[in-house]
Amino acid sequence: MSKGTFLFGAAIGGAAAYVAAYLFTPKSGEEYQLELRDKAEMLKETSSDYMSIAKERGGDFKAIATDAAVGLKTDMQLASKQLTEQLKMDSQILKADLKDVKDGVPGSKETLKANLSEAVNEAKYTAVSLKDQVSQTTSEAKDISKAVVDEAKMEINETKAENNPVDTF
């Protein structure tokens, strides 16, 4: 082995040792402090972003719940009013039919049965209508809530992407 090859090998080995030592040597305390401060600041910003998203979406959900509650209350009041008016009219008709039955008016029993059946059918229709209105209001609130959740997820993913950039070496 010649001196030149030995020196060349020693130079290559020394360079490799220097690179390995540089890459694997621990950072100084000051470097760690700076890195920790940067990471803490990034974490603080991320937490702040998530908090603002949560507050905003919380307000959205409150508005959705309030709107749905108002819609349901209005539907219930309307159905209650309709049912009350319907029962008043039906009770007057049935009361007259019952008087006719007591007085022995011919065909009054059949009329009473028919009017009673019609009153029951109208009450069922009103109940089904109310159920449909409540179902529609609930479905709309659910759809809006899903859209808000999807938007919040998108914002969270954007925040994650902003605060966790891909490291390049």
UniProtKB/TrEMBL annotation:
Organism in which the protein naturally occurs: Carnobacterium viridans
Superkingdom of this entry's organism?
Answer: Bacteria
Query: What name goes with this protein?
Result: Gas vesicle protein
